[in-house]
Amino acid sequence: MINHLTLKPPAFGLSISATSLSLAKVDKKENEFLLSIVSRSQVNSEIMGKGRVQDPKAFAKEIRKLIRGTRLKTNHVNISLPEERFFIKVVELNNMSKSDVGNAISNELENHIPFFSEEVYFDFEIIGFSERKNGIKVLIAAIPKNVVDSYLDPIKNADLKPRSIESELHSLSRIVLEGDSGLGVLINVNKNGTSFNLFFQGKIYSSLYSEKMNVNTLSKVDLSEKAIIDEVKKYFNFYKDFSNKNALDLNSSSELESVFINGNEKSRSKLGELIDEFFEVEVKPIALNKEVKNKFSNTKNILTHSIATGAALRDFN
Questions:
Q1: pTM value?
Q2: How far is it, in rounded angstroms, from Cα 59 to Cα 64?
Q3: Fewest C-beta in 10 Å: which of 114, 145, 150, 311?
Q4: pLDDT of residue 107
Q5: Residues 193-218: b if buried by 16+ CB within 10 A, e if exposed
Q6: Could you tell me what percent of the chain has a pLDDT over 70?
Q7: Whether residue 268 sits in one domain with residue 155
Q8: Are residues 75 and 50 part of one domain?
Q9: What is the DSSP letter of 314?
């Protein structure tokens, strides 16, 4: 969520995970959108680890290989990074101008994350008014500079011009969450861990990350395993308490209404079964939201490249 340039010329979306790279280019003609270019490649696990690039030269080479032969005519890129190193939180501030909000967050940031403010890049979005007089609610996303720079340097060495950086969950939410959605949790399972992301009306409000659960552990786990059940309960109970403390402006019940799970088939199935058994909440399949369905003339390949497509759509929001 770090803006570097203006919205022109057009950019493509680049999704970076621990084991793969994916790109997507979205074109717009009048009121119609088209997913014109997609590409995906696997990346050696030694190149990236612990949420950052470990071998910059090899990473730049992998990006060039991903782009080669795709007919891309732009080198501007919106980047989506694994959410494990992001800090996402909603805070309340006195009502003020947008420029003053940035200064206020910079001064208060150290109260909300385990870093000094000069050690992170951060961005924010004003998402509504709070209950207190003249108060506003602000969504903050922050990520350590050394993590971001480990990606940016080789990306620039691959002759690309980064325009923005955001977490993969923000990219994914742009594709799957409805603007009028109720309270729910978007779960993303990958090789390194699992993130639990509270959403309301199409926006991510909070993100919690568990290293105990990942693609491998969830694929093998017995549903009766107490450690996994307790881990899921911990996050669901936190979010129930979170919503009941008026952190959200709810017009109806503060109960969780739905859960979306993103990940491979085995981990989705196991986690979905567990949630169905222990929590009274509907588990829904990941699907395109109405806005995306209405905008695109052809939705083929969008879900396969959902995070990269969501990053590309950032320019059109």
A1: 0.84
A2: 9
A3: 114
A4: 86
A5: bbbbbbbbbebbbbbbbbeebbbebb
A6: 88
A7: no
A8: yes
A9: G
**Local structure of 176: helix, strand or coil:** helix
Query: Distance between CA atoms of 250 and 248, rounded to whole angstroms?
Result: 6
Please name which of 207, 275, 200, 261 lies closest in space to residue 238, comparing C-alpha atoms: 207
Query: Are residues 196 and 208 part of one domain?
Result: yes
**Token code pair at residue 95:** 């009502």
Tally of domains in the chain = 3
For residue 224, CA distances in Å to 50, 214, 283, 299 come to: 30, 17, 19, 38
DSSP bridge partners of 81? 167
Q: How confident is the model at residue 251 (pLDDT cuts 50, 70, 90)?
A: very low
- Three-class SS of 183-238: CEEEEEECCCCEEEEEEECCEEEEEEEECCCCHHHHHHCCCCCHHHHHHHHHHHHH
| Cβ(14)–Cβ(80) below 8 Å | yes
Q: Cβ–Cβ contacts within 10 Å for residue 31, how many?
A: 7
Residue 42 makes CB contacts below 8 A (sequence gap 6+) with 19, 20
Per-residue pLDDT reduced to its tens digit, 72-129:
999 999 999 988 888 888 888 887 877 788 888 888 888 888 888 899 999 888 877 7
Quick check: 244 pLDDT over 60? Answer: no
Dist CA 99 CA 26 (whole Å) = 31
Q: Is residue 195 located within the same domain as residue 99?
A: no
Q: What is the pLDDT of residues 207-219, one digit of tens each?
A: 888 877 777 777 6
Residue 173 has pLDDT above 80, yes or no: yes
Instruction: Tell me, yes or no, whether 150 and 61 share the same domain.
Output: yes
Q: Is the pLDDT of residue 224 over 70?
A: no
